[in-house]
């Protein structure tokens, strides 16, 4: 398979049909809307003849939906955080639905009503919270003065006055001594905290200046008593108000809990609101007039029939005009998006290509070529039957019993496929959770391990390099074929076929000298290598006007042989990671075996599970990362450039559900 072929779609219909057509297209999730005014179509005719009917952009609907989305999300957070019985919360189970069924279940007025009621509850709870903070502050203050047995406002007479206040506890002894030196002044300590002492002072008004002088000297913090009742009474009244607030809050939270029954409606409303926002954003790319609109977009060729069917279901056939055009050379170079199309075995590996860079529209998709190599390399680096079985059953469980988001489903498919080479290499290495497979079972001689990670290290090392050598030759071959297709024949020789010949020649020489001890084989290898090396040097001389520059370019190109040696060395990580993962697993098993029997079958069970889980995680992470690195650096660099723009269809957010076409969903 390869890059999905695209065509340019143009739709013209009456303005009142715009929403229905956009809904049908969004439900397909397979069409990217183009900006009409940046397309290659000549719009001067429309601008000349329909200038008076062209509509300006109106984003009022988009703003309304964005406001609604914010309110829904705030309401969901508020319900989940503050309503009672949060332990009974049942999360929304992910679903598979069509956009039409989702839209039919969306009741704008009903949701708006919920949001207003929840917002009122939110405001009321905020008021209660604010009032509680004020009352708690008052309670703390009154607790200090509750032993004051008079009301200052009611106990001020013609010749006497009362002041209340506090001083630092470090100065209270000196303060009392100075105050008591004044005759006719009554001092009462009301409250003594760690840092402050609170007093009430009763004095003659004629002594005001003397009292003020002392209070100023000791930074007496004076304040006015605000109540017309005793502090004890005010304190009790404050406590009653707090208790009343607790009851009110409980009542509000019980009311809020009733909205848990509507959580699913709010989740679905959030999903639908996202869909409306994306749809409103798409309208900015259309040409809209009072009477009609024009829409352009990119559509995969194999989706054309689906689009026709969807439009026929949405509105009468004679009310929409649709045409499909092949992309121009300019559009292929600058505008057309890229969507990969591969079978179910290869498709999960597309994410590796996407992480690197999508191919250009007219470039080869490297995913199908890369997939078998990645599978072999990944299996070789994890290489354990037990770990492979965990991957297999874990992925199957997730895929069969859960509705996964598309990205997670692709990951599950990815590891499901990779579990098989992991198991196969586990048999080759004879490893089951780090335990060696038996050599004899029921009297039968078993061939395991086929390759021992302790005795056949050199063999595994050589095998790793052989796999790398095959992948390098494959990359060069693909490059040569692609250059030939573009009629760059000389480039295909100097950049591909000659390098293949050089590497194969060197291989023949090594085999002739070290394996077969055959001079004829060595001579044949030297001839192939020399001819290939001369081709690498000569072709740039032919292509360049300045022969000296061509020679220098050719010699510099030949120097690239050192890079190929480095590439081959990189593949030795296949051996290193495979052996290290198995050795770590065996070491964990040995650690538990050394424990006493009682500990081994209690704590040891938990320990071995935890340790193997850690080793599995590290092995998978290492194999994933290093496997990808070998593809990106050593393989893709031989033939692949990338730089394509990702296909971005008009779709939904799919936050809580997977939206599928009607043909794929059983309502």
From TrEMBL:
Keywords: Coiled coil, Ion transport, Membrane, Transmembrane, Transmembrane helix, Transport
Coiled-coil regions listed: 111-138
Domain of life, per lineage: Bacteria
Compartments (UniProt record): Membrane
Family: Belongs to the V-ATPase 116 kDa subunit family.
Pfam families referenced in this protein's UniProt entry, alphabetically: V_ATPase_I
Protein name: ATP synthase subunit I
Topology in the lipid bilayer: Multi-pass membrane protein
Lipoprotein among keywords: no
Signal sequence interval, chain numbering: none
Transmembrane portions of the chain: 373-399, 411-437, 457-476, 497-516, 522-542, 598-621
